[in-house]
Amino acid sequence: MERPRLSRLISRSMWGGDTKPYYDLMNAVAEVRDGGTIVDCPCGAGPAFRSLRPDADIRYIAADLSPSMLRRARKRARSRGLDVEVMQADATEIPVPPDSADLFLSFWGLHCFDDPAAALAEAARILKPGARLVGCSFVRGSDSLRQRLLVRPGVGDFGPIPTQPDIQAWLPVAGFDISTTSRSGPMLFFDAVRSITTPPS
Q1: How far is it, in rounded angstroms, from Cα 34 to Cα 36?
Q2: Domain boundaries, the chain
Q3: Sign of the CA dihedral 70, 71, 73, 78?
Q4: Class of the 24-194 domain?
């Protein structure tokens, strides 16, 4: 995931989908104005750091449960000269105040979590009203036999694995207005904003 060309090649050959929308969604990082706050959970090894300028006056919080991923994220931030707060945290309990973030990144986590709906509710709690959530997840329910064999609940790093309708239902319940969703193979990409009128559940 840290090398777009290689990632796109592997995703097409292995998963039958294209990860280009994932890298396009990362552009949201560069759109946050100075003084803003970004929460990236799960941050993994920090691939989204690629869109953060070293001179940006941004509070960037990178959270993950995996100590090995956090070590890689710290190393990546140092190599890029970035001021990033790296912390160990569960996606359903991130130590960030409510209504405080301008952008939440939820890349490749929902299909691993025991309670992905709770993770989306936590993102809504953290975001300011009108602020943006972008993310992606593997989903069940493919027409392809190969994809159904590869994307199976409880196999490898996969947890329960939601379906596309699951995520599209959870987002409004959590307090989001969906801007766009798109599907490529077993991968769902989503862009939403924290509702201004509806508080998070």
Answers
A1: 5
A2: 24-194
A3: positive
A4: alpha beta
